[in-house]
Design goal:
Blueprint lengths: L1 H17 L5 H15 L11 E8 L13 E8 L2 E9 L4 E6 L5 E3 L2 E3 L10 E3 L5 E3 L2 H13 L13 H9 L5 E3 L12 E3 L2 H14 L4 E7 L2 H9 L4 E9 L2 E18 L2 E7 L12 E4 L3 E9 L2
Antiparallel strand pairs: 1-2, 2-3, 3-4, 4-15, 5-6, 6-13, 7-8, 9-10, 11-16, 12-13, 12-16, 13-14, 14-15
Length: 303
Amino acid sequence: MRTTLRASLFVLVAFLLGCAEPKPEVLQAETHLAALRSAGLVPKALGDIEVAAVRRIQPLPTRWVRSGRPFWWAELRCDDGAAGHLAWTDEGRLIDFSLDGLREVISPQAFALAGVPPIQQFPLKATDGTPVASGCVPTAGASLIAFWSARPGAAAWGGAGEQDLVRRLRARMRMGVIPDLEGYTDGKMSLAGAFPDELAEALQADADERGVDVDVALSGYDRQLLGAEISAGRPVLVSCVVLLPRKPELSWGHQVVGVGRAEVGGAHYVGVIDNFFTPRIPGSIRWIAEDRVAQLVLVRPRR
């Protein structure tokens, strides 16, 4: 009798839990996912996508970013595994998202270019023999060179492996070695920093040396300018502040390749190929709120 009663109670509790309303943060994640689907930003090839773990993140202060307000982070999953992430504020404003497999977009609300090689940062040796990251600035620049070298009339800008392109740009800039005190890398490998203006100068010098007829310019962020460049088939380099996808409690100043623009729920986003972000499907676009973008480096053919 006692065993039967215990079993009945277990079934009742399970039933009640199954009927419980989803938590507000899960409902918010579902709302964001539906808005992205309506905007054409969820690739159909992934099949059914569901919200997995949702957690509240308390940002950590770093040498570059003060501790900010807490926000929400959701992992997305599909039948094949990880499907991306969403991040939003307590007010429900989406600030960062990615859907694995989304590498090109053409919709009324969004447009993104395909074809930018997703070169990832890799370890090098510092002068003292310790490992140091290749650096986001030259790595993003190398992705842009690799894109242009596949275009008619610009093949001479390539002519090297992807990592050789990164090393070539590094040699043209003053690269600072920055100890990883915050734990951005798993092994606390030193980081490498450089300035966007030096990247623009390095790209121009590299193109001129190889007879590639382009002009490189530095600009503050401008939504219309970004949209015009992307619509013309020209990716841009983007200086921004972003969350670290594997450790979203950390954020940092970053250089990435801008390949898209989108409007979701009246807010505007910049689509990027991130060189410190390894989605399950390489080349997947990451989207960041435009208020996190500071500068653009533009590359245009001379007419």
